[in-house]
Every structure is written in structure tokens, then in C-alpha cells.
Amino acid sequence: MNTRETTPAARGRPREFSADEALAQALRVFWTKGYEGTSLSDLTEAMGITRPSLYAAFGNKETLFRKALDLYQREKLQYVQQALAEPSARRVAETLLFGAVENASRPSEPTGCLGVITSTACGDEAKSVRDEVLERGDVIRKAFVERLERAKAEGDVPAHANPEALTSLLFALVQGISLQARSGSSREQLHVLAETGLAQWPTSKER
Q1: Spatial separation of the C-alpha atoms in residues 15 and 13, rounded to whole Å
Q2: Distance between CA atoms of residues 87 and 89, nearest Å
Q3: What does the chain look like in DSSP terms, one character per residue?
Q4: CA-to-CA distance for 69 and 196, rounded, in angstroms?
Q5: Domains and CATH numbers, the chain
Q6: 59-113, pLDDT tens digit by residue?
Q7: What is the pLDDT of residue 124?
Q8: pLDDT at residue number 166
Q9: Phi, psi of 118, deg, nearest 5
């Protein structure tokens, strides 16, 4: 989708920009610097548009972040739905953790997870943004609890296993993977972290 700039370019003709490309650049800035660390100047420079054009096309900074978060979930978190669709609880855990490693350590993209970065770094002034990220995370968390409850009912995990606790373990590992990636850990080191967590995974039968 092309959107026209409201500010005339050279020779008096309006400059056009791709809203999709501009949003992708905004996502990259937010992912790199975090919500609070990102200024409007950072965004307009990366997106190649003026502030009036940003406001006209995307709304304010918070609205833009929400749109960027939507894009992030669509394009970067496909592994979450893939994990939920796996036939065994063990595969659910593996797909989620190794997907998190891949997402947090792609060579051509910012490190870490946008959701983890935002939920752990936002202060009181960005409470609404942090709350939005946490609410979305809760939706995903509930889906994993339900999936592991089904696994327990099917005998795929031991009867004594607690789906809530197992989900908490998975999410703690995902958060750890993100923070370790952010601090410079290599993909190999992140794989070791995921594998160490998986070594603690309960199972009812040999796989």
C-alpha cells in the first residue's frame, strides 16, 4: 500500500512511501531500542517520513507501536502457533523453545523478543503499552496451559504434572533466551539453554 506524504518533495511533487515498509522499519526500531528508548525522531528517520505523515498514517507513537506489535506477532511468532499444533507435549516444548532461539538470534534482525523487551523495560510512563504486551502474553499463556491440560488428560505427561507450572517453566525459559540473546549470547549458547530446560521436561513414556 502506498501512502502519499503530506509534505511536498523536490519540484513540488508529493513524495510517496509504502506504509507496509514504513511499519516494518518502525518495528525494527522498537525491537532494537525498546518502546521507551525509541524517539519520534528515531522513527521518522528510519521510516523515511515526516512527523505529520507518521501521525496521519499511523497515529501517535503508542498506536504505531501497537501496529508494529501486530506485525511482529504475524511475521515473527508463527512458531508459537506451530508449537500449539504439535502432536505431543514434548514437541510443543521443543518447538516453542527452539523457535524462541531462532527468533531471538537471527543474524539480520535485532536480538531478543520484542514482547519480553517491552514487558521488562517499560516504566510507569509507558504502563498502557506494557499492559498491552502482558495481556497479549496472557492469551498465549492460557493457550499453552490448555494444550498441556489436554496432554495430561491424554497421558502424554505424568498425572502429577501441573500444566500451569509447566507453562511457567516454558515462559521463563523463553524470557531467559530473549534476555541472554540481548546480552550477547550466541545461538549455540541459547540452544544449550533450551536443551537444558528440555532435560527437565516430564514424560510418561519413552519417546
Answers
A1: 6
A2: 7
A3: -EEEEEEE-GGGPEEEEEHHHHHHHHHHHHHHH-TTT--HHHHHHHHT--HHHHHHHH-SHHHHHHHHHHHHHHHH-HHHHHHHT-SSHHHHHHHHHHHHHHHH--TTS-SS-HHHHHHHH--GGGHHHHHHHHHHHHHHHHHHHHHHHHHHHTTSS-TT--HHHHHHHHHHHHHHHHHHHHTT--HHHHHHHHHHHHTT---SS--
A4: 30
A5: 2-68 (1.10.10.60), 77-198 (1.10.357.10)
A6: 999 999 999 999 999 999 999 999 999 999 999 999 999 999 999 999 889 999 9
A7: 73
A8: 97
A9: -70, -45
Kindly report, residue by residue over 12-56, the tens digit of the pLDDT.
444 567 899 999 999 999 999 999 999 999 999 999 999 999 999
The residue type found at 90 is R
Q: What is the Cα–Cα distance from 172 to 158, expressed in whole angstroms?
A: 21
The pTM (predicted TM-score) of the whole model is: 0.86
Q: Which three cell numbers stand for residue 148?
A: 498441556
Phi, psi of 18 (to 5 degrees): -85, 120
Taking a C-beta distance cutoff of 8 angstroms, is the pair 101, 177 a contact?
Answer: yes
